[in-house]
Amino acid sequence: MTSDAKKLRLWKRRGYYSERQLVKRLEKAGFKAVRIPVSNPSAAPLPDVIARKGLFIYAFEVKNSKFYAYFPRSQIEKLFRFLDDLIPLPKQYKYACLAAHIGKKWVIKFLDWEIYEKNKIPEKICLTHRSHTQLKI
Questions:
Q1: Which of 4, 41, 59, 110 lies deepest, with the highest CB count within 10 Å?
Q2: 3-128 is classed in which CATH architecture?
Q3: Which of these, 92, 99, 110, 27, lies nearest to 56 by C-alpha position?
Q4: Residues 6 or more apart whose Cβ sits within 8 Å of residue 53
Q5: Residue 8's pLDDT is what?
Q6: What is the tens place of the pLDDT at every residue in 110-136?
Q7: Which residues pair with 95 in a beta bridge?
Q8: Is 3 among the catalytic positions?
Q9: Which of 3, 18, 39, 42 is catalytic?
């Protein structure tokens, strides 16, 4: 196996680990949560993790990094498309979330529906270990 192939496997394993850890933390906090195993890079609007608490639905894009995590526009759009097209609830019950596992810290950011509805999603969003988390888990 080449060095590049080994690096790719380790990178994928880190993401898988963080997705599983997020599900465990959400469940411990009283959410119903599941990891979507087919959420590899594709055109399908699937998040990495889906969670529910009461009537509220949360779609998460998850990244694992040592210092900062970048979420490209295409992944952010997929979160909103999933919630908009596949979850038949009013938008006040649906949350598009970015979750960054940076070192040992979790940073979670909720995205405003306005950026999707007005087509103002930035090219990328960066979360760092200093970013404010909007969901304590």
A1: 59
A2: 3-Layer(aba) Sandwich (3.40)
A3: 92
A4: 30, 31, 32
A5: 47
A6: 999 999 999 999 999 999 988 988 888
A7: 58
A8: no
A9: 39
